[in-house]
Write a structure and sequence with these properties.
The structure is a single chain. Helices cover about 30% and strands about 25% of the residues. The chain is of the alpha/beta class and about 375 residues long. The chain has a single domain, classed as Metallo-dependent phosphatases (Purple Acid Phosphatase, chain A, domain 2, 4-Layer Sandwich). Strands 1, 4, 5, 6, 13, 14, 15 and 16 form an 8-stranded mixed beta sheet that branches. It has a 6-stranded mixed beta sheet with strand order 7-8-9-10-12-11. The longest helix is centred in the N-terminal third of the chain and has 46 residues. The N terminus is likely disordered.
Length: about 375
């Protein structure tokens, strides 16, 4: 039997059909690839859009202003005496009040204990100040107060217990004195403008007056070990840690080796801001890593004018504390010098900002201001 041969017409038709089928297959593959690419492009675009619409970390900020020691010598409280065992210090701070009113947190160091008038109001070397100095400062807005210093033990345990009870019912944040270990070890957490913060106050010394054994809670005496326990107990619960340090050497403008070492240690624990006191004169302001360190604000008000000009010039530091993405930074840091004016070292006490001074009040005040601002801005050398 002979095999049939395809005719030429039919062969041509077969080739055409085959090519059409191949073309359709190729087109289908290309279309599929295109759809996959388009799908990927849309998906990527959706991811980018979703990332753009994810809630960004919101910046939070609070403002803080700090002044130095309220060191209430006899001349100061006698100038405030209005009779009948009462005192009024308010006239001494009328020019300070407008400078602090717009800040959220307003700090000062209550250098002389509010120990109760029943123990007798007294001055150097064992201070006991009238309640009114604290009440008047709170009246103009101060709401962050350090209570741990070298004069905390001046009126003994009784004075501290009075002080603790005095401050406890006030609308103010304090640290440094306690009436029990439970109270002392409970590092409180506060909130301002959505920022959670802790405030802890320490002193390096108590002027040789011993803290009663078993009652170490009465005053926060600094040690590296205690600071580590305190700070680690709150570090992960707050955005900002503020520590007030009563440290250093009196009447020197240069931070001591101990101050610098402790500043570095506190920074390593995660402290964001250190506010220093005790030298009674101004010291530099500097950064240790990301920690802002005010080594000493000097005196806010005192009766130390007989001891020299540097004892009656204090520093006011204002700032914004900014929290974003768990990082703390400081903005709008502002320095102002304050001068404690008085007549003949005994009367008409008044804290006057340098911006308001005239040569009639302090001769050469412009030159003096530059001299002290050079101290504030002096470079601190670390070992």
């Amino acid at each position: 039997m002979k095999k049939r041969k395809l005719k030429k017409g039919k062969l041509f038709l077969f080739i055409i059909i085959f090519l059409v089928i191949v073309a359709l297959i190729v087109s289908g593959i290309l279309l599929l690839i295109g759809n996959i690419k388009n799908s990927e492009s849309v998906e990527n675009q959706e991811q980018i859009t979703n990332q753009d619409t994810l809630p960004q970390s919101k910046e939070k900020r609070m403002s803080l202003v700090a002044v130095g020691d309220a060191l209430i010598h006899g001349a100061v409280y006698m100038d405030a005496d209005i009779g009948g065992g009462n005192y009024d210090f308010s006239k001494m701070f009328t020019e300070v009040a407008p400078l602090i009113k717009d800040y959220d947190l307003k700090y000062y160091n209550q250098e002389t204990i509010i120990g109760g008038k029943n123990l007798g109001v007294s001055h150097y070397p064992r201070f006991n100040s009238p309640d009114e100095i604290a009440l008047n400062l709170m009246d103009i807005g101060f709401n962050l107060v350090s209570l741990a210093n070298n004069h905390t033990m001046d009126m003994g345990e009784e004075g501290i217990l009075y002080s603790v009870n005095f401050w406890r019912n006030k609308d103010v944040v304090v640290s440094g004195q306690s009436d029990s270990f439970e109270d002392r070890d409970n590092i409180k957490i506060y909130e301002q403008n959505g920022i959670k913060y802790a405030f802890i106050s320490y002193t390096e010394m108590t002027n040789g007056l011993p803290v009663p054994a078993g009652k170490e809670y009465l005053v926060n005496v600094y040690s590296d070990e205690q600071a580590k326990i305190d700070i680690e107990s709150v570090r992960d619960k707050v955005d900002v840690v503020i520590v007030a340090m009563h440290w250093g050497e009196e009447y020197t403008h240069t931070p001591t080796y101990s101050q610098k070492k402790e500043a570095q240690y506190l920074s390593s624990l995660g402290v964001n801001l250190i506010i220093g006191s005790h030298p009674h004169v101004i010291m530099p302001v500097d950064y240790v890593n990301d920690t802002l360190v005010i080594y000493s604000l000097g005196n806010f008000i005192s009766g130390q004018s007989p001891l020299g000009l540097d004892k009656i010039i204090g520093l006011m530091v204002g700032m914004d504390i900014v929290v974003k993405d768990k990082k703390v930074t400081f903005e709008n840091i502002d320095y102002k010098l304050l001068y404690t004016y008085c007549v003949n070292d005994i009367r008409n006490y008044k804290v006057i900002p340098f911006d308001n001074l005239t040569d009639d009040v302090l001769n050469g005040h412009d030159k003096i201001e530059q001299e002290y601002m050079d101290i504030v801005n002096a470079e601190v050398l670390y070992d």
